[in-house]
Amino acid sequence: MLPENRRVNPMYQPLAYALGPVLALSLLAGCALEPNAPLPDSPEAQAVSKPDSEVVSPSAQPRKKGAGAKLTIRIKSQRFEYREGGELVRAGDVSSGSREHPTPKGSFRVLSKEKDKRSGSYTNDFEKPTPMPYAIQFKGPYYVHEGWLPGHADSHGCVRLHYEDARFVFERIRVGDRVAVVD
Q1: Which CATH class is domain 54-182?
Q2: In which residue ranges of the chain is CATH 2.40.440.10 found?
Q3: What is the rounded CA–CA span in Å between residue 22 and residue 36?
Q4: pLDDT tens sequence across 10-36
Q5: DSSP per-residue string spanning 78-114
Q6: pTM (two decimals)
Q7: Which is the most buried residue in 64, 66, 157, 163, by most CB within 10 A?
Q8: Which residues contact 22 (CB under 8 A, 6 or more apart)?
């Protein structure tokens, strides 16, 4: 039985009960929730973890032919703006490079896109290349991709977006579109 003050994501409960609380919580440290945290599907958890994104134009409409797109990353406010044909389509939070590993500022173009990219420089807790889903390369080893947003600049130079935002921008932006990193 798991300790009463520790809750595990329901997806991992069968494994947790089979292995026992100490071993299960050790193995599932990344999957376990904080003591007395709401379950992921509960309204309390959704209210806390919901990204602060603005969908300005309906995402179901396809990008207009010939309409250029521009992704602007605002370092100071830790926000992004995605525009098509000059019209704001989506905006939301980011986590850019930390003071020790700053995100390069300037005007760039999308160099490449890779849906299931893995880092060639950094590994995760399991010594595997760190996942960088929905990766959009804009300069050398610097990408915009899905990742954890702690509420401040915290990456090694890449720009992290919430899952929904990263997927949206990845699906809309094209190689050659503009990326501006400002502030």
Answers
A1: mainly beta
A2: 54-182
A3: 17
A4: 444 454 445 454 444 333 333 333 334
A5: TEEEEEETTEEEEEEEEE-B-SSSPPPPEEEE--EEE
A6: 0.68
A7: 157
A8: none
